[in-house]
Amino acid sequence: MSSRFFRGGDDSSSESSSDEEELLTEEEEDDNQNQQGDSEEDSDDMGSDEDDSDDSDDSEEGAGRFLKSGADSDSDESDEEVRAKVKSAKDKRLDELEASIKQIENGQKNGDWTLISSGVTHVVCILMQMGLLANTRIEYDKLNRQVTKLPGGKTPKPYIRIISELEDFMNEALAKQKVTPKKMNATQARALNAVKQKIKKTNKDYQTEIDSYRANKDEFMESSEEEVAPAPKPKKTVKIELDEAPEVDGDDGFATVGKGGKTLTYTPESIFKHLRGIMESRGKKNTDRLEQIGVMEKLLEIANTPYQKIRVLLTIVSARFDLGSSITSAIPVEHWKSAEKELLTLLTVLEESPEYIVVESAEEWEDDEKPPTLQAGEKYIKVAGSVVSYVERLDDELNRSLQAIDPHTSEYVERLQDEGALYNVIVRGQLYYEQLRKDKDLDISQDSINRIIMRRLEHNYFKPAQVIKTFEENLWSAVTEKAESAITPRSEASDAANLVNVLCNYLYSNSDGIIRARAMLCQVYFLALHSDYYKSRDMMLMSHLQENIPNFDVQTQILYNRTLVQIGLCAFRKGLVYDAQNTLQEICGSGRQKELLAQGVMMQRFNQVSPEQERLEKQRQLPFHMHINLELLECVYLTCSMLLEIPLLAQTGSSPDIKKRIISKTYRRMLEYHERQIFTGPPENTRDHVMQASKALAAGEWKKATTFIHNIKIWDLMPNTEEIKTMLSKQIQEEGLRTYLFTYAPFYDTLAVETLSGMFELDATKVSAVVSKMISHEELAASLDQVTSNLIFRKGVELSRLQSLALTLSDKASALIETNERTLEQKTQGSTNAFERGGGRGRGGQRSGQRPGRGGARTGGNTQRQAGGTQFTGGALGAAVRG
């Protein structure tokens, strides 16, 4: 302040220092406004005005007052006043306005939208050089803020000019972008969009002045030279605002201070006032959510009535859920656990105070001074809220958290332990809604209890019975003795199958649409998981979901795929190879198991996926503990395909007149690719084991095939591993017998059943049963003499060696013609001539001999195999036939 007494020597220096002081005050004021709100800004403005008046007073009563002599004339006094003259607040604001306008004009000349949107004034430059400012203000926002601060209330004409020209400049830029699309820098594009929004919002307030300026620019700007008489300064007033987001300091010995330096005190009477302030600031920019949560934790500590606790708990749980930055990121673990405990506390308070109920249909209570009370004829005090929504959000947050954690770490296991606490919250919520449903006067939506029971079912359907039993025992030991459920009684909680059945039957009776369909799928999945194949299959078929599943949402379609796969695995465990392969074909044959089961995102080579689609794919992925092992699934599918395809290949090879049929194109491609390998080493993975077993089975070496299949280590993941291996041994023996009969039938007149029994180590009765079944299905041209236990073959028209070679040549010629046609079509771009030459098979059409891919099997034409399997394998089986 000493400069005020010694500034008479140099007008320019005093003015520049005063300008710098005012600009610093302005920027500090802007900084405070960004952190503390508008009330602080007004206070700073009044403080700067007060400083201005002090400057003028000091200039007359300060240094000049002590240096004046009695002989000084009026002219000396006038000179002293000129030297001590300080710019008024209005002049300083106008100077800042001109500087901002100059900055925006420079941005227009350069076409730099970043400069226009986020340029920095001289004040910002000074503060950045001094290290007092870490981030910059938006230039357009600063311009608008300066206009609102100008005294007198009249909008400056230069401001009208620049916002009008800026709008025209923006429209020209947007028009150029539409006519000649040009890749704009991402930063410039964001700045242009930001300026567009701000202009659209701000120019509406000055539309009249803008129209006047555009009508006659020169006349409009000439009037700006007229000096407007300054309005009298209003008396200094102090504006007091309520503390909306007070600062909290948890250290002992420190007081909590809010805006304006006021010491905050939390009392039970002020709880609702603080809650309203927090709710009004929810979702606003620059809101410190952690600070608000800290305030509400203090409010919860001092709440002394059930109504206060209920209100605070509902608000604090909502605030914790707001901490998730997006729908793909979960809230922090410690806040999730706090929310879970607070939900349990809320349910406990509601159980202990039955006169208070939380329902969605309740109206908000507006009176913060007086809590609601029971009126005459009323039984409940309704509080606005939704317990089921909080439970669902808590469940979703846990899933997001598990999706983001590496499943192969101990952190995942630790996080998964929280599922038990979540399950307790879900069941406690169910008990609460059951209690409300008992009162018929309360119009409680059936949908709420359906949703919460569905959540409980979704936590049970994929778990083994023992895990469900443990969850239920821990649950009922944590609740009070008087707590009882009418839907799922405490006495029946130990029976997992009965629990799932009761929950599903309740949803069948009281819901429809997606919830009912999902309940059906959950029950079918549970039955298949526990090896009840026939019941699960019948329920799936009777539901007719396979006809309507494309109309459901993606999550339900994923559940349908998971259920279908589980039914197939159940059929395999039961030894029903054909049923298992037929069920798994739809999922495993597509090659998109990961995507269809929501266990991973598979990016196609030539498929363009937008970031939005990729985000949605990752969002719907299932947590790792719900996954179905894809390697085990592939092993089951390929093993079943082997047991069906190898006999079929042998049958079609020995009977040229049989129509070609393919059970699994995926398996055929793998098999042909394996056959083309010049050198095949020992099997290394599941697929190699199955291919080697297929080759051995086709060659009649069923023991070797059994060894290859048994050596697959993935079988250890299935329950009752030894039973599975025993079942596979029997299946390989039977299919080996069928393959042998199909291959060698043309070379036998009679064959003893005992011989077959010894070759394949099967019981004679089993051999007779297999042979009789083949004869009855007309797969084998023979008859069984039960007296002598001999198999008598009927000779048909046998092909000579020349005929077989002719058929082979015909097959190769057909394949060559089709290859030439495809090459010609590619060169002629699918012209009509190619269509005519192809006999109606246009470009992209399905051709009867076309290979679906590299190594794909031929599916039509005259591609007949000769006896001996020469097109399939050159093993011992083929060599014996050719010899």
Tell me what the structure shows.
This protein has 883 residues and is mostly helical. Among the domains are: 2-225, no CATH class; 263-459, Serine Threonine Protein Phosphatase 5, Tetratricopeptide repeat (Alpha Horseshoe); 534-603 and 611-626; 801-865. 61% of the residues lie in helices and 2% in strands. The strands form 2 sheets. The chain has a 3-stranded antiparallel beta sheet. Strand 4 (782-785) and strand 5 (790-793) form a beta hairpin. The chain starts with 10 loop residues before the first helix and ends with a helix. Residues 1-78, 119-138, 224-255, 259-263 and 830-883 have low confidence and may be disordered.
User: Order of strands across the biggest sheet?
Assistant: 3-5-4
How many β-strand runs?
5
* SS field, number of helical segments: 39
Mean pLDDT: 75
Report low-confidence residues grouped into runs of 5 or more.
1-78, 119-138, 224-255, 259-263, 830-883
- Indicate the structural class: mainly alpha
Shape: flat
Characterize the largest beta sheet: strand count, sense, and whether it forms a barrel: 3 strands, antiparallel
Straight-line N-to-C gap: 117 Å
Q: How much β-strand is present in the residues?
A: under 5%
Q: C-alpha Rg, in Å? A: 42 Å
Task: Provide the helix percentage.
Answer: 55-70%
Region (Disordered): 1-81, 822-883
Pfam families: eIF-3c_N (PF05470), EIF3CL_C (PF26569), PCI (PF01399)
Subunit structure: Component of the eukaryotic translation initiation factor 3 (eIF-3) complex.
Keywords: Coiled coil, Cytoplasm, Initiation factor, Protein biosynthesis
